[in-house]
Automatic annotation (TrEMBL), chain B:
Organism of provenance: Oscillochloris trichoides DG-6
Pfam annotation, one family: SpoVR_C
Domain SpoVR protein-like N-terminal per the UniProt entry, residue ranges: 8-424
InterPro entries to which the protein is assigned, alphabetical: Spore_V_R (IPR007390), SpoVR-like_C (IPR057008), SpoVR_N (IPR056174)
Record protein name field: SpoVR family protein
Domain of life: Bacteria
Residue span, SpoVR-like C-terminal domain: 426-476
Length: 369, 498
C-alpha cells in the first residue's frame, strides 16, 4: 500500500495555513492572546476561515447529555472534548478551528513574510550540544543494541576454528563470547550562544497598554531569535531612576513611581555583559523599551556615551523601542536618532499602537545581525 | 516495503479469538490485519481508514492534528477497522500483546456489526476499490483543469456534504424527476363532466357544483405538476446533480463527494450501538476466554480507559456497552413487558426473575435491527438513567459555563434523542427549485428548537449559490422568529416572514 499521499495533503494544508497567517500577519502580531495560548513548544492559532462551513446547529439553545456526579446547577467539567464523542452531540460549546503550530513553523512564516535575513552569528562558537553517534562494535551492551550479523560471524569463526562446524549440517549457535554490540560515542558540536537583555522603563508614565505592547513585541523577538540560535538566555532589567534585575513575571507587572534615568539601566546592562557574557563568546541583543521620557539633557548624553564606548562594541545590535504614552514626551528616540542614527548597530523604532508591532519587528530584526 | 503482517504469536491469538467469537455466534467478514507504525497508522486514520483518497488538504489537516496530539499530548489511536469485505483492520506496532488481543476482539465485534446491522446493508463493501477509483478520477480532472480550481470546487462540495437524506437507501422516495415539460402542453384538459346522451339530462347528470369541483381538481393537479420538485427533497446533493448547471467534471466531483458521504453515514448513525457491541465482545472474549491470569490486570486497565467518563462527558463506548448489558440482564430475567411494567410492588420488581435467559438472543436482535436513535428510544429506562448518573446540561449565559440542567428521565431521553435524530444534523430540504418563477432555490430548515449557527449558514449558502448559480433562499427561525435568508451571488439579505 502506498501511504505517501498524505504528505502531499499535509504540505498543501501547511501552505494554506501559512497563506492565511501571512495574509493577516499584522493582525495576528497585534494579538496578545497568542502568547497566552503558548504551550511549551506549540502555539494555537485561531483560524476561523479555514473550517469548511456547513449547516449545523449553533450553541445558543444547545446543551446535551452528560454523565457523572453533581447536582442541578453545578457547572459541567470544562476542557476540550475528547475525540470520538462528537457523534453523541454531547460536547459543550462550539469551537473555532485552532491550528497548532510549532514555534519553528511560526518563526519560518515570520521570517518569510517580513523578509528577515538569517543571522550570521558572531563570536567564537561554544561547545555545547552533544550528539550520540554509533561508531563501533564492542563485546558488551544491552540486547537492544545487539549486532546480529557480527554476532553470527563471530560464532561461525569460532566454530570453524574449533572444528565444530559441519558443512553438511550448517548450524551456527552463538555463545556468550560471540555476542557483539553496537557502541556509540558522544560528539560535541559547536553552537553559538545568544543572550537577550530586555530593559524597560517602569516609571509611572508606562501604563498597562504600554507594557502589553512590550510583551507582544518581546514574544515575536523571542520567536525569531529562538529559530536562529539553539539556546537563548534572557535577562530582564527594569528601571525608573535606578535600575535592577528582575525575573520575567516581575518585569511585566512591576510598577514604580518616580523619575526616569535611562543611563542607570544601560550601566547595569553593561555590567551584566562584562560579568557574564564576554563579547567574544556571546551574541548579545539588548532591547530597551520606554515612552521616551528621560531626566534632563545630562542623562541622555551619558546614555549616548555609554552606548558608543561600552555597549555597542560588544553587542550584535542595540534596539530601542519607544511606546507612546499619554505622558511621555517621546524625546529620547529623537535624541538617539540624532546622535547615533548613523551607527548601523543602533535600531530605533516607535510603537504607537498594536498594529505597529509588525513594522517594529521588521525594523529590529531586518538587519540580519 | 515493510512487512505489515501479524507476527506469528499474534496470528495464533487471532485464530483463537476468532474461534471463540464464532462459538459465541458472531459472524464476520474475513479480517485482514496490518501492523503499522504510528505515523502510517495516523496517515491511514486521517484518510478515513483508506490508503488511497483523492488529494485534499483536509486529510493533511487531520493528519497534522493527530500527529501533534500524539507527540505533544500523548493521545494514541489503538485501532481502526473499515467496513469492507474482506475488512481491513490496523494495529499499532509495538503495543503489548494483551492490547493487540483486546483490539482484535473489539475489531471482530465491529466487523460482525458491519456484516449484520441493517443500516449497513446498502454500503459498498468494495469501497477500497471505489475510493481508489474516485482518487484516480479526481486526479485526472486535476491534471486537465488545474489544482486550484478543482480544490476550490471540492471545498464547495464538502461544505454541502451533510445535505443528504440519511434514510434514502432504505426507503423508496418519489424522486425529484418531473417527466413532462412544464410549459407548452398542447391542450389543457377541460372539465367536461360525465358523458351525457340526452341534452335535457345535462344539468341533472353534471350539476354546476360538480363541474366546478372537477375544474378545481384539474387546476390543483396542474399546480402540483408545476411545482418543482413535486415533493420536498431531502437529498439536496442529488437534486443539484440532477438540475444544477454543472460542468461535466463538476458533476463527477459532486457525485463522488455524495457517494462517500453515503458510505460513511451509517457509521454516524450507529456510533453508540456499534462501539457498545464491539466493547461488549472484547470484554466478554477477553475475560471469559483469552486473557491469561498474567494479562488480566493489564486488560482491566486498558478496558477502563476505553469506557472512562471524565469531566461529565458521555462516552459512546460506555453508554453503548452498559445499555446492551442492561438489556441482556432484563431479558435474562424477564424484566420487560406488560406484566413487569404494570407491577407496582417495588420489592417484587427488585427481585423479579423469570429465568427466561433471553438476553443474548435479544442483543443479537438489537445488533441486527437497530440504530442509535431506535436503540435509545426503546431501551433507555429510568432505572438505567439513575444508575449511570446521566444528566442534561445547558449553557448559562450569566456564568458563561455549561451547567447541569436536569436529572429527569423524560428530559434526558428527549435531549439525547434530539441530539441523535438525523445524526446531529439539522433537517434541511428543498421546497422549490423555481422560486419566484425565476429558477431560484428555496430551502426550508425544519426548526426543532435549536437555531442554526448563523455565520456557518451564511457561508454555506454562498457555496450553494456557487453551484446553483441562481439566488438561494433559506427559511429558518432565529430567536423564535421566522426568517428568510437570501443570497443572490453578491448580497446577503435577511427578512422576517410570517
Amino acid at each position: 500500500m502506498s501511504m505517501k499521499r498524505v504528505d502531499r495533503d499535509l504540505n498543501r494544508f501547511r501552505q494554506i495555513v501559512r497563506g492565511k497567517i501571512k495574509k493577516d500577519l499584522r493582525k495576528y502580531m497585534s494579538h496578545g492572546e497568542m502568547i497566552g495560548r503558548q504551550g511549551k513548544r506549540l502555539v494555537s492559532i485561531p483560524l476561523p476561515s479555514i473550517d469548511l462551513p456547513q449547516f449545523r446547529y449553533g450553541a445558543k439553545q444547545g446543551g446535551g447529555v452528560g454523565q457523572g456526579e453533581g447536582d442541578v446547577g453545578d457547572p459541567v467539567g470544562q476542557g476540550d472534548p475528547q475525540p470520538g464523542q462528537g457523534e453523541a452531540g454531547s460536547e459543550p460549546g462550539q469551537h473555532v478551528l485552532e491550528v497548532d503550530m510549532t514555534l519553528e513553523e511560526l518563526a519560518a512564516i515570520l521570517g518569510e513574510e517580513l523578509q528577515l535575513p538569517n543571522i550570521q552569528p558572531k563570536g567564537r562558537k561554544n561547545l555545547i550540544s552533544e550528539k550520540d553517534r554509533y561508531v563501533g562494535i564492542r563485546r558488551t551492551g544491552p540486547n537492544s543494541l545487539r549486532h546480529f550479523k557480527r554476532t553470527y560471524r563471530e560464532a561461525l569463526r569460532r566454530q570453524i576454528s574449533s572444528g565444530e562446524y559441519d558443512q553438511a549440517d550448517p548450524i551456527v549457535v552463538p555463545i556468550r563470547e560471540d555476542m557483539r554490540y553496537r557502541s556509540w560515542k558522544e560528539t560535541l558540536q559547536p553552537e553559538s550562544n545568544a543572550v537577550i537583555i530586555y530593559m524597560m522603563d517602569v516609571s509611572g508614565s508606562m501604563g498597562t497598554e504600554q507594557k502589553e505592547l512590550v510583551r507582544i513585541t518581546a514574544f515575536w523577538i523571542e520567536t525569531w531569535l529562538r529559530s536562529q540560535y539553539k539556546e537563548i538566555e534572557i535577562r530582564y532589567i527594569v528601571h525608573d531612576a535606578a535600575a535592577k534585575e528582575v525575573d520575567q513575571e516581575t518585569f511585566y507587572h512591576i510598577r514604580e513611581g518616580g523619575g526616569t534615568k535611562i543611563s542607570s539601566a544601560y550601566k547595569l546592562c553593561n555590567r551584566l555583559i562584562d560579568e557574564r557574557y564576554p563579547a567574544s563568546e556571546w551574541n548579545i541583543y539588548p532591547f530597551h523599551f520606554s515612552d521616551g521620557d528621560n531626566w534632563g539633557g545630562g542623562d541622555t548624553r551619558e546614555c549616548v556615551e555609554l552606548l558608543r564606548n561600552e555597549i555597542l562594541p560588544k553587542v550584535n545590535q542595540f534596539c530601542y523601542g519607544q511606546v507612546r504614552s499619554l505622558y511621555g514626551s517621546g524625546r529620547f528616540a529623537h535624541d538617539l536618532e540624532e546622535l547615533l542614527g548613523a551607527d548601523e548597530r543602533v535600531v530605533v523604532s516607535e510603537i504607537s499602537e498594536r498594529d505597529d508591532i509588525y513594522d517594529t519587528i521588521k525594523d529590529f530584526l531586518g538587519k540580519g545581525k | 516495503m515493510k512487512n505489515t503482517r501479524l507476527p506469528a504469536n499474534l496470528e495464533s491469538a487471532r485464530e483463537e479469538i476468532e474461534a471463540h467469537a464464532r462459538a459465541y455466534g458472531l459472524d464476520f467478514f474475513p479480517i485482514i490485519y496490518e501492523v503499522l507504525d504510528y505515523r502510517t497508522l495516523y496517515e491511514t486514520a486521517a484518510m478515513g481508514g483508506f490508503p488511497t483518497r483523492y488529494p485534499h488538504w483536509r486529510f493533511g489537516m487531520d493528519f497534522d492534528q493527530l500527529m501533534k496530539g500524539h507527540v505533544w499530548q500523548g493521545s494514541t489511536i489503538y485501532e481502526m477497522v473499515i467496513n469492507t469485505n474482506p475488512s481491513y483492520a490496523y494495529l499499532l506496532e509495538g503495543n503489548e500483546d494483551v492490547t493487540q488481543k483486546m483490539v482484535m476482539a473489539h475489531v471482530t465485534g465491529h466487523v460482525d456489526f458491519f456484516k449484520h446491522n441493517m443500516w449497513f446493508a446498502h454500503t459498498n463493501r468494495k469501497m477500497l476499490d471505489a475510493m481508489a477509483n474516485h482518487a484516480t478520477r479526481i486526479q485526472r480532472i486535476i491534471d486537465r483543469i488545474g489544482y486550484d480550481v478543482v480544490e476550490e470546487f471540492i471545498d464547495t462540495c464538502l461544505s454541502l456534504e451533510n445535505l443528504i437524506d440519511y434514510h434514502s437507501p432504505y426507503i423508496k422516495r418519489p424522486d425529484a424527476h418531473t417527466p413532462q415539460p412544464l410549459v407548452g402542453e398542447e391542450e389543457p384538459p377541460v372539465a367536461q363532466g360525465l358523458r351525457v346522451e340526452r341534452d335535457y339530462m345535462r344539468d341533472y347528470i353534471n350539476p354546476p357544483e360538480y363541474l366546478a369541483a372537477q375544474r378545481q381538481k384539474i387546476e390543483d393537479e396542474r399546480a402540483k405538476q408545476r411545482r418543482f420538485p413535486e415533493h420536498s427533497q431531502r437529498d439536496i446533493l442529488l437534486f443539484l446533480l440532477n438540475y444544477a448547471p454543472l460542468e461535466r467534471w463538476q458533476h463527477t466531483v459532486l457525485e463522488i463527494v455524495r457517494d462517500e458521504a453515503y458510505y460513511f453515514a451509517p457509521q454516524g448513525m450507529t456510533k453508540i450501538l456499534n462501539e457498545g457491541w464491539a466493547s461488549y465482545w472484547h470484554s466478554t472474549i477477553m475475560t471469559q476466554k483469552v486473557a491469561s491470569a498474567a494479562e488480566i490486570i493489564s486488560f482491566a486497565d486498558l478496558h477502563s480507559g476505553v469506557v472512562a467518563t471524565g469531566g461529565g462527558r458521555l462516552n459512546p463506548y460506555k453508554l453503548g456497552l452498559e445499555l446492551l448489558r442492561d438489556v441482556e440482564d432484563r431479558w435474562n430475567r424477564g424484566r420487560f413487558g406488560k406484566e413487569y411494567d404494570e407491577c407496582d410492588d417495588i420489592a417484587a420488581k427488585r427481585t423479579w426473575d423469570r429465568q427466561l435467559g433471553l438476553g443474548r438472543q435479544k442483543i443479537f436482535e438489537i445488533r441486527k435491527l437497530y440504530n442509535d436513535v431506535t436503540f435509545i428510544d426503546e431501551f433507555l429506562t429510568p432505572e438505567f438513567v439513575i444508575e449511570n448518573k446521566l444528566f442534561t446540561f445547558r449553557y448559562n449565559r450569566d456564568s458563561d459555563l455549561y451547567e447541569i440542567a436536569s436529572r429527569e428521565f423524560k428530559e434526558i431521553k428527549e435531549k439525547l434523542l434530539f441530539r441523535l435524530t438525523n445524526f446531529g444534523q439539522p433537517f434541511i430540504s428543498i421546497e422549490d427549485g423555481n422560486y419566484n418563477n425565476r429558477g431560484e432555490l428555496y430551502l426550508r430548515h425544519r426548526h426543532e428548537g435549536v437555531d442554526l449557527k448563523m455565520d456557518y449558514a451564511r457561508d454555506t449558502m454562498r457555496n450553494l449559490q456557487r453551484i446553483w448559480t441562481r439566488p438561494v433562499h433559506l427559511e429558518t427561525r432565529i430567536d423564535d422568529k421566522k426568517r428568510l435568508l437570501s443570497f443572490d451571488g453578491s448580497d446577503y439579505t435577511e427578512r422576517r416572514i410570517d
